[in-house]
């Protein structure tokens, strides 16, 4: 069930404005259905495969569906997520901002989720995008925009793990929004998708022509070992990590948080 608009409005952080700089409120091809992709995650740090996911999804949407991507967002999770080893949310937002600076995709960073004091489930994050884009701005070209989650196959595998996602949230995410799922090395996507058959019409699986086993965990390990992450992340992100001394030690203390625990367990 969708979150009450009053609840979402009350969650607006002080000084926050929804990023619209690259959001196309008029479509290039009005015969298509407008689509906004939202990738939720830690992005600690953001790497090139995170960015490539958007390019792959845009290709897929253009070639295999009747959607036109009119906007795309990174939504870094807040510090309340509590996953061990992550940089603070404000640093992760800043690194994402640096990473999207030269993007050709209509890619933006929304700090709304990152700035929340309490953990926000992904279903509610998508409701926030629906509120901002469809309810408050009237969609794109006067049409309701399809908001969809963009995720790697490993995240979708967690959908069927016990005690990670609430069933009503999965129903809302996959039934009312939908997901674009990018292949990820070592994920058993067939098994994951077979337990999500009920929502198969709303799940678009994107095979990777060039798959890359990159993960932020591996980058954090390289940095901890005083090794270079050059060519895995944009130069500006690498400079930011160095300038702020990130990932030398454990960054965020993990509160007793069920999401964080399951996230640590599934960490790549
Ligand atoms: N190499 C990859 N291939 C496909 N999808 C990926 C890849 N790396 C990250 N993703 C996807 O990007 C989204 C955000 O991921 P996240 O921030 O957890 O990155 P990560 O590299 O998996 O980080 P960590 O190692 O800290 O878990 C998730 O949906 C995840 O599945
Ligand atoms: O909404 C939920 O119940 C939920 C359960 C597990 C994970 N998530 C989201 O999935 C993302 C996982 O990111 P990561 O870096 O831990 O792989 C992050 O954005 C979480 O908020 C969300």
UniProtKB/TrEMBL annotation:
<keyword id="KW-0547">Nucleotide-binding</keyword>
<keyword id="KW-0662">Pyridine nucleotide biosynthesis</keyword>
<dbReference type="InterPro" id="IPR014729">
    <property type="entry name" value="Rossmann-like_a/b/a_fold"/>
</dbReference>
<dbReference type="GO" id="GO:0004515">
    <property type="term" value="F:nicotinate-nucleotide adenylyltransferase activity"/>
</dbReference>
<dbReference type="GO" id="GO:0005524">
    <property type="term" value="F:ATP binding"/>
</dbReference>
<dbReference type="Pfam" id="PF01467">
    <property type="entry name" value="CTP_transf_like"/>
</dbReference>
<dbReference type="InterPro" id="IPR051182">
    <property type="entry name" value="Euk_NMN_adenylyltrnsfrase"/>
</dbReference>
<comment type="similarity">
    <text>Belongs to the eukaryotic NMN adenylyltransferase family.</text>
</comment>
<comment type="pathway">
    <text>Cofactor biosynthesis; NAD(+) biosynthesis; NAD(+) from nicotinamide D-ribonucleotide: step 1/1.</text>
</comment>
<comment type="subunit">
    <text>Homotetramer.</text>
</comment>
<feature type="domain" description="Cytidyltransferase-like">
    <location>
        <begin position="38"/>
        <end position="220"/>
    </location>
</feature>
<keyword id="KW-0067">ATP-binding</keyword>
<dbReference type="InterPro" id="IPR005248">
    <property type="entry name" value="NadD/NMNAT"/>
</dbReference>
<keyword id="KW-0496">Mitochondrion</keyword>
<dbReference type="GO" id="GO:0005759">
    <property type="term" value="C:mitochondrial matrix"/>
</dbReference>
<comment type="function">
    <text>Catalyzes the formation of NAD(+) from nicotinamide mononucleotide (NMN) and ATP. Can also use the deamidated form; nicotinic acid mononucleotide (NaMN) as substrate with the same efficiency. Can use triazofurin monophosphate (TrMP) as substrate. Can also use GTP and ITP as nucleotide donors. Also catalyzes the reverse reaction, i.e. the pyrophosphorolytic cleavage of NAD(+). For the pyrophosphorolytic activity, can use NAD(+), NADH, NaAD, nicotinic acid adenine dinucleotide phosphate (NHD), nicotinamide guanine dinucleotide (NGD) as substrates.</text>
</comment>
<dbReference type="GO" id="GO:0000309">
    <property type="term" value="F:nicotinamide-nucleotide adenylyltransferase activity"/>
</dbReference>
<protein>
    <recommendedName>
        <fullName>Nicotinamide-nucleotide adenylyltransferase</fullName>
        <ecNumber>2.7.7.1</ecNumber>
        <ecNumber>2.7.7.18</ecNumber>
    </recommendedName>
</protein>
<keyword id="KW-0808">Transferase</keyword>
<dbReference type="InterPro" id="IPR004821">
    <property type="entry name" value="Cyt_trans-like"/>
</dbReference>
<keyword id="KW-0548">Nucleotidyltransferase</keyword>
<keyword id="KW-0520">NAD</keyword>
<dbReference type="GO" id="GO:0009435">
    <property type="term" value="P:NAD+ biosynthetic process"/>
</dbReference>
